[in-house]
Structure formats: C-alpha cells, structure tokens
Amino acid sequence: MTTPYWVQDSIFYQIFPDRFANGDKANDPVNVQPWGVKPTHLHYMGGDLQGITQKFNYLLDLGINAIYLNPIFHSTANHRYHTIDYFRIDPFLGSMNDFKALLNVAHNNNVRVILDGVFNHCGRGFFAFINVLENQEHSPYCDWFHIKNFPINAYGKGEAQDYLAWWGFRSLPKFNTDNQQTRKYLLDVARFWIDQGADGWRLDVPNEIDDDKFWAEFRDTVKSANPDSYLVGEIWTPDRRWVGETHFDGLMNYPFREAIIEFLTSDVLPVSEFANRIENLLNLYPKENVYAMYLPLGTHDTERLFSKMGNNLEKVKLAFLIQFAFPGAPAVYYGDEIGMQGGKDPESRGAFPWDDLESRTELHNWVKVLISLRKQLPVLRRGNYQRIFTDDRRHVFALARMLGDSSVLVAINASSTRRHVRFNVLDLNWGDGRIVRNLLGKEEYIVSEGRLAVSLPPWGGLWVA
Amino acid sequence: MTTPYWVQDSIFYQIFPDRFANGDKANDPVNVQPWGVKPTHLHYMGGDLQGITQKFNYLLDLGINAIYLNPIFHSTANHRYHTIDYFRIDPFLGSMNDFKALLNVAHNNNVRVILDGVFNHCGRGFFAFINVLENQEHSPYCDWFHIKNFPINAYGKGEAQDYLAWWGFRSLPKFNTDNQQTRKYLLDVARFWIDQGADGWRLDVPNEIDDDKFWAEFRDTVKSANPDSYLVGEIWTPDRRWVGETHFDGLMNYPFREAIIEFLTSDVLPVSEFANRIENLLNLYPKENVYAMYLPLGTHDTERLFSKMGNNLEKVKLAFLIQFAFPGAPAVYYGDEIGMQGGKDPESRGAFPWDDLESRTELHNWVKVLISLRKQLPVLRRGNYQRIFTDDRRHVFALARMLGDSSVLVAINASSTRRHVRFNVLDLNWGDGRIVRNLLGKEEYIVSEGRLAVSLPPWGGLWVA
Description:
Oligomer: homodimer
Strand content of chain A: 15-25%
Largest interface: A-B, 31 and 31 residues
C-alpha cells in the first residue's frame, strides 16, 4: 500500500481562506470589503486562519475530517495563486503561529489539513523573478525561468513575450524546473510545510511540469518527511500517468463531477452512459488510487454546485447522495453544504453567510446525514463498487457498495417522474425475506424472489441497507 | 547618560559583506565573479557571513571590537540597499543560522555588531510595492508609498513619475512613514533584529525621513528592546538635530573625515582652520554624543583612504594617527588598514586581498599599534580634548587628550618638511624634568621650562605620554 491509509476514510472540506471566516480584524487589508458583497478579482473580504480555527465547531458538527486549504502563502492576490514567498503565511491570513494553532486544533480533533502547492509558476513578485527584472541578463536567477530574450518586460500589456508564463500571463512566470537550484528550492518548500505539520499537498496544474522525474523527486521528498502525507494532483482529465509510485496518490476527480452534473442537468446523457463514464474512472486507475481520489462537486475553479444544478434543491441533494456513495474521498467546497450560489470565479468565491444559516437547514442537514452515515459505515468508504441496474428509458440507476457481509444499495432516479423499480439483489447476498431500509429516510423493504421493489421520488435516491 | 556606555571604547570595522570573505561557496550566485576582479555595480564576488566568522581571528588580531555590517537582508543588489525582505538574511550571504553563528563568535569575543537599516525606501521588489504594482489603486498597500497617480510604472526609463523614490530612482520607492501600518512594519523590523542579538543600527539616509516623531518612536523601540543598543545616523553634514534623546546616539562623522582629507591633501586649509573645524564638531554636539560619534576615514560611499591620500603611505598613517586620537569611535573600512585602493563606488568595494597581505604589513602594523594603544589608554578614548598648538606657517598642529592625571600629547606635521617645535605643556600638568616618550616610536623627551621640544618628520606625528 503506497497511498496514505486515511484518505479513503476522509471527507474533505475545501476552504478558500479569504472567504470562509474573519477571525482577526486586525490583519485585514485597509480596503477590506464588507463581508458578503459580490466577490471581485481584486478585493479581499478579510477571511483568515484564525477564522477557520474559530469556526472549527461548525466543521466538526458538519462532520468533515480533512481540510484542503486554498493557497495560504504570501501573495499579491486574494486567491493567493500569485505566490511571492513560499515560506511565509500571507499577512492578511495571519502568522505562522496562527497556522500552527489551526493545525493544532485540527489534529487534536483528528482532522487533517492539506495545502495548495503552486510549483509550476510564481508571482512576478517572487524574489528570483524580481532579481531578473532588476538585473536582467546579469541576474544569478535567469536560469530559474524560461527567458527568451533580454530585457524582459513583466508589466506591459498583452501576453508575456520575453519569458514563458502560465497561459501567457505576464504576472505568472513559469519556473524552469530543469534548473537544479530551482528544483531544490521547490522541494525545500514541499518538505518545509510537511515538517511544519501539513498533511499533504494538493498540486496546482502539475501537468504543466511535464517531467516525471521532478514529480518522483517531489513524492520522495514529501513521503520521506512524512510517509502518511497525501498528494493529490489537479488533473482535469482522466489520465493514468499522474498516479502511482512516482506521482500522486490521487487526483481531483473533475471528470466524476462533470459526469454527475451532465447526468443530472442534461437530457442527453443516458444512465448507462453515465454509469460507463464513472466506472471507467474506477477502472482506469489502480484500486488504491481510486480510493485515494479527491471527489469534488465544486471548487474555487468551477461554478457553485447549487447554481450548476439550476438552483434545484432536489438535484443538489441527489448529487451529494451519489458523491458520498462513491469510492474516494468526497469533498465539500465551503458553502456548498448550505447551497451557496454563484457562477465561475470570482462569483463562486463568495463570503460564507454565517448570519444566514437558519434558512438553509434542509441541505445542511442532508449533507450532515450523508457524512455521518459515510463515517459510520465502512462499506461506503472501503467497499467494492458494483453496478446493479441501469434503465435509460426511465433514467434509473443503481449501484452497490459491498464489504464483507455488508452491502449498501444506492438507487437514483434522474428524472422528474416518480419511478417504481425492482432491482435484482442477488449479487448483494440479500436473501428472500430480508428486511432492509432506506438509510436516508424511513422506508422499509422486504427482499422477495431475489428482488427489491422500491419507489423513487423525482430527482431522488436511496441508500438501502 | 543616554548613549551606550561601550561606544566610546569601541573601534569599529566596517564590512561590505559581498567583498570581505567567501566562507561558503555553496551559497554563491551561479554567476559569481572571481575574487578580486574589478568590482562592478551588478556582480557578486561571493562574500558571506560564514566568511566573516571564519576570518574572525584576523579581526581580533587587528584589535577591533565592533563591526558595522553593510546591509545583509534579502535584496536584489550586491550592496543590498534594494531591500526586498527585511526579515530575511540574503541567501547569498547565508541563513539566519549563519547570522546567529557570527553574532555568537562576536559576542563571545566582546565584539559588537551593528546593522545597516534602510528605512527611507525599499527595493521595488518589496512585497508591499509589488502588491501596488499588481493591483494598482486597488492594492491595500497604496498608502505605504507616496503614489501620485495610477497606474504606476516602476520599470520604464527615466526618473520615477508616479511615485516618490529615492533620488528619483524607480527602483527605490520611498516609504510613506506617516502611514501607521508602514511605521509599525519598520519599527517591527528594528525591534526584530535587536531581539535577534544585533547591537544597534546604522541608519541609512535618515534625514530623508524628515519626521522627528518617527525617529523618537524608532529610538524608543530599539532602546526598549535593548537599552545598550547603539544608533548612528548617516548624516553627512554637521547637524545638531540628529543626536539626542529623540534621535541617535551618534552620527557618521563625515565632516571630520573631510577635514582630515583636506588638511592632508590640499594646501589651502591652514592648520588653525583645520583645528577650528574639528573643534566645532566637538562643540556642536552634547559631550556624550561627541564620544558616541562614528569616525570614518572611508566607507562604501567614498573613495578609498589610500587613493584619496594620493597613495602616500605617510599621509595615510598620519590620517589614522589623527583619527585614533580623536573623541568618538574610530572606524576602519575593511581593507583600509592594508591600503586597499579605489575611487568611488563601485571601485571602493573591492574584494579583500587575503592572498596579498604580506606586502602590506607596514600600514597593517601601524593600525594595529594605534588600535592597541587606544585600547590600552583610557585617556585616548575618554579623555577631554584640548588644543595645544597651531602654526599655520609650518603646518604643525598639536592637541592633547587628558583624563585625570593622564595626558597624551598628539603632534602633527602636515607638511613635507621636518619640523622642530616646542610645545607649551603647562596645561598637561607635565612638570619640568618629566620624561615622556613617543608611544608610536622610541623617542624620549624631557620637559623643560614648561615646554617640550620635539622633531616631527614630514607628514609625521607623535603620540607623546
């Protein structure tokens, strides 16, 4: 086993630090925006590390046991992907002490914390790039980047002409990871934060560092600092290359998210095709990596789940029902559990509405139940996956998770019509006369002639056991 | 007494870190220049903190007991006045551990270390300025600087148009120290390094922060961290404003240097005028500040003493003789004790010629004797100053230092002709028949009729006691 033992038992919560909670007004930017205004690319709302620590009871009540923090290092942007210092907490988020305090409360409550690692590029305010800007071809750091010609101009209009940059953005010069000094620097960063207590890294756009040896070294570095560290890559497409002994434990399973969204929002994806797509994702990777996948329904880089579902609460609940029944580590993007809305960045990075939780209890409770059941039932976390039923005409799908004697039947009606369905449950070893019930409701069913007859509400689903 | 007790007993050695000694080749820039090539504005020679630590025996043999280090914080330039991180040692100089090791060996040998504080401006790679460059008028840091209009352009040609900068250099944006956040940041820096063990600050261009309250706060901050810290301002002109309870303990006494150089290299400065000038400097300031002045004959900002003296060894020795007889803390710019040559910056910042010390022993030994005597004789450090004799026609000057029963007569011949002179020594309480001798040679003299007859070689001097 080379993936960390704990990931398949984890439920992640992704936090965009500027927008989750403001725990220390003293570190706010002077031009901090009021909490809850329409998010922009440029402004801060004042969220910080103390805010997360102070709201830890909320996270524990929700039930999550792992956190993925969007970048927290010193940066020039509210999203902090424009890193200027990889060894320092952004002052608007707090201090190293605040980070240690957060880790402390997390670890004392058996919650793990992984960080966002942006190693393909830096901000143009990063010291080595600054040195090139100052000294041009005389800089000792020229070879840290991919410079095409001097003098380089980092602040003009248009795409970067003189050096490689992420998507051509002058503000994000790409590292030359072939340079051993640069490599050492980045690996030192990777080790440093693990040594400080972080439980792993989410790697930003790792496919843009197209160098298997770099990632093998990266993995060695992190795992030698802590063998239980989790490495998860931001890979948007199904791609076997990025998992395994020389790469990552898991990937951000965006294709899984896309399949669910297409399944629940378009008329063109037949149930069997949906099943094929998600099962292909299970078959593409070694099993241990499948169980170490990070399963998002939304992130800082996507529309909000609620909006994506056309503000249809039933569909949102159904999406979570599927997500929490799948192998891997389900991940909740902060606020998706209470139905926060918004289009793509920056809209999807709104301030968490602490003063408006009472009107959002239905979804909130639903997610709490799913998390609680997933934590109670090892079969949902560690069980095998098996397809049970697909009906393209009626849009009904069923799968099972099975572990030893334990089985859960997951049934989904992806249509606006109530469906009455009989599933063959022989594979679940459920004998005739066995009484099972919907874990998410009160219905009881009896197995008869190797089959189970259930009624599925519109855009509804069951977890039966 | 508000100036630190130790300064008047100190002999400073000023080190330009890139050029003193390379102790760790592993931290050299990739394009490091060979040690000893002609210095340029752009290149590094690899000197570092470990180098100073490794050469500490040389410093102890020379006899100095205080070090003024040119800037050591993370910067984009070999002189490190373009600060990009005030809380970090420049990686080409080493690490915080290297700094602590240097402080350790220094303090264990009763050598104090003061740092160069550049608080008027930063490098344009400093995080707050970078943030303004990135976010322009939306940046939370706009008020850290003096921005005239947006967008600001930091990298074009010509003087800074959009913001105040030191001498108009775009690369050196001036801080707005009226902003309380900026002020707090700079004061935090000041305290941090004192807390790390530094023994004081040399303040770079402090007159450009034309704000007495700022400097009062600065002093309070530093002195509350360590009441024995030394504060010395880079003030080039005689100016009472900058010393005292709300400013600095001493100033870099450039006017003293200029007087000595003019006295020994031009024919137009009569001895009496020279005496007036240096005595005015003694009278301008409170006595405790006079004794806490930093007395340089050369620095990183001037021509080398040896070159300034027309490569005349006797004049160089005479200059040191005067310097070490004066109230205040004599300071040796690294290499001046072995006659390093060079015009203004960058020439005066050459690499210390460790492989060429044997040919330079005469001056080296001379300086060692002066230092040793100054350390042996409290009268030279703490004694009162008194003019004894001026002869404009023959260019002879004599002063005395007197402390209790102890006196030293300092006689100087600033001409190319041997002079026979009789000094009235009644003020020294030297009675007739008393035998005194030249501390710097072997001559003995007998006091007769209240006078002392001495012979002064061309461009030569005596310390008689």
